[in-house]
Amino acid sequence: MTSERKYNEVDGENEALSFDYYGDDDDFDTFTDGDCGSDEGVLGFSDPFSCEVKPRILLMGLRRSGKSSIQKVVFHKMSPNETLFLESTNKICREDVSNSSFVSFQIWDFPGQIDFFDPTFDYEMIFRGTGALIFVIDSQDDYVEALSRLHLTVTRAYKVNPDINFEVFIHKVDGLSDDRKIEKQRDIHKRANDDLADAGLERIHLSFYLTSIYDHSIFEAFSKVVQKLIPQLPTLENLLNIFISNSGIEKAFLFDVVSKIYIATDSSPVDMQTYELCCDMIDVVIDISCIYGLTGDEVGTPYDKESMAIIHLNNTTVMYLKEVTKFLALVCFLREESFERKGLIDYNFHCFKKAIEEVFDVRLKVQRSRKLLSQRRWSRQTVPNGTQVHPH
Ligand SMILES: Nc1nc2c(ncn2[C@@H]2O[C@H](COP(=O)(O)OP(=O)(O)OP(=O)(O)O)[C@@H](O)[C@H]2O)c(=O)[nH]1
C-alpha cells in the first residue's frame, strides 16, 4: 500500500482534517437550468443568519479539460492516475472548503457541456458571489474553441461582477517540453488578451498558470488563486517576515495541511523545488502520524499541537515543521548553523503563533458581530407571532 493511499483512508474517516464536504458525490447540491435561481437558500447567499459569505471559486472550461481531476487531486487526495477513470460531470458540483479558518471558500465545478448562457440559467446570480473564476484550457488539445469560450465567459462575468479574479490554467502541460510550455503560454496569453482588446476590454486582467496534476504545479497555482482571496494576506506575510528575520530562517511557508495549499509565505521569492520539498515533508509527517501516531481505537486527528518534524538535508539545510493551528503548519528552511539557536527560534515561533491567534480572534469577532447584526435586522422584520412584515 502506498503512503498516499494510507493518507486517503485516514482522511476519509477524519472529520477535523477533512473538508466540510456535503456528503458524497450524489449529495452534491446540483442545479439544473430550471432550479438554479430559486435555490438561493441552498447557496447560502440569501441566508439571513449567514455570518459570512464565502468567496466562491468557479472551475470552468471545455469538456475533458481536467476540471474534476483538479478538484479531486487538490482537495480529495485522489492520486493523479485515478482521474483517468473519472466520469464526465453532468451537473454543477458545489463543494465547501472550510477546513481551515483562513481557507474558507466554495468551489463550483461546471460540466463542460452545460450551455452556460441558456436564458433560463441564472448566471448573474452565480457570478455575483464569485471571488475567482478558474478557466481550464487543455494544452494538449486544440485550444481555439477554448479561447473563444474563455472570452465569452470572462466578458459576461466581468459585466456582472468586475471584482472577479480571472485565472487561466493552461493545463496538462506534463506532456510538453519546457520550450513548448513557454510557447503555448505566450500564444494563449496573446490571443486571449488580443480578443479582449478587440472588444475594448483591456482593463480585464487575466492571470495565467502552467499546471498539471502530475506534479506540484497545480497546488502552487491553486495556492496563488486562494491567496488572492485571503484578506489577511498582507498581515500574514508581515508576520512571517518578522519571524524569519529574527530567527535566521531563510524561507517560511504557512501551509494548509490538508490541501497543501500555502496560504502565505515571506516576501522572498518562492522556487518550485522548495515548495515541493515542503509538500513532501507534510506528506511524510501525516503518513507517519497516521501509521504510528494514532492508537487503535482513536478516530482523532493525526495532526495536533504536538506535531512537529525536523529533517536535515544533505546540503546543510534544515527543514523545520511546527503546528500553528489545528489546520495550519509552518514549514521553514534554514542553515544548520542557524538551527543551533533552536531555543531562539522556538521562542520567536511562540510569539508568531500568538500573533496568528490574534488574527483569528479579530476575524471571529467580526464574524460574530456581523451575525448579531443580521439577526437583529431579521428579528426587526418579524412580529412576535412569527409572521413576517415586509419592510417598506
Ligand atoms: N496528462 C494529463 N491528463 C490530465 C490532467 N488533468 C486531467 N487529466 C485527464 O483528463 C481527462 C479528463 O479529466 P476530467 O477531470 O474528467 O475533465 P473535466 O473537465 O472535469 O470533464 P467534464 O466533466 O466532461 O467537464 C481525464 O482522463 C484525466 O485523467 C493533467 O494534468 N495531465
TrEMBL record:
It is found in: Cytoplasm; Lysosome; Lysosome membrane; Nucleus. Belongs to the GTR/RAG GTP-binding protein family. PANTHER family: RAS-RELATED GTP BINDING RAG/GTR YEAST, RAS-RELATED GTP-BINDING PROTEIN D. The gene is rragd. This is Ras-related GTP-binding protein. GO terms for biological process: cellular response to amino acid starvation; cellular response to amino acid stimulus; negative regulation of autophagy; positive regulation of TORC1 signaling. The keyword DNA-binding does not apply. SUPFAM superfamilies: P-loop containing nucleoside triphosphate hydrolases (SSF52540). Guanine nucleotide-binding protein that plays a crucial role in the cellular response to amino acid availability through regulation of the mTORC1 signaling cascade.
